[in-house]
Amino acid sequence: MTPAPPIHGIIAYPITPFGADGGVDTATLAVLVEKLIAAGVHAIAPLGSTGEAAYLTEGEFDSVVDTTVGTVDHRVPVIVGAGDLTTANTVRRARYAQRAGADAVMILPVSYWKLSPREIAQHYATVGAAVDIPIMAYNNPATSGIDMSPELLVQMFNDIDNLTMVKESTGDLGRMLRIKELTGDTLPFYNGSNPLILDALTAGASGWCTAAPNLRPQPCLDLYAATRAGDFAAAKTIYDDLSPLLRFIVAGGLPTTVKAGLRLLGSDVGDPRPPLLPLDEAGLNELRSLLVD
Description:
TIM Barrel, 12 helices, globular, alpha/beta, 8-stranded parallel sheet
């Protein structure tokens, strides 16, 4: 089995900035990625929900991959979100990410029709056969409409050599514990549910996939460090302070709220792409009160 790269800790999701012409602003993206690395995050994961991957053309997708990988320049791992409606284009994206120098790809199964476990497994197996880099299986039924059970995820881990990681975003701690139980704690799992992060790290999650470091990086890093050190009292204090922001950005939609927060912090990253809309005035006022580090 292909060993997973040393991916752990705070896995930060950059937004995809848009310029005045509506296209991807790669210069601003490079600045934002550089800030995340300077803050001390442990990995960068472009083109997830936060990065508005669902609303990009293939050319824009490729430009985000190239800019992110080039900016990171091997300083931390890069995990590219490569999921798409079709298996063929998921393979195209995953291969492009590999050629560009990504360390891993994150695959979210998305389909208009509900996929059966057999279809999901074949989708991942086809992508796995097309690339050599590790795959992080991403379970997020709230956005994809497809829910993968721990049993299915473990089956694919056993059957697909380079499927080596799982990101769980259901907010159900029991699923993470079930994955540990079924694999003897050999399948690394990563938390993608911001409100669940304290419990997930306490339960042994290898990392936290989150957009929050765009706005308040230090508390995210401190929370991870405290749980790693076994100082759960300190971790609880940090979490209680950070939790209102975590809940707000999830409830308001990550591209909308994170872009609004970056603007409040002095970075003009453009609006989210329609049909998404910028945060309204009431939301801006609430977010402003939460951006206190």
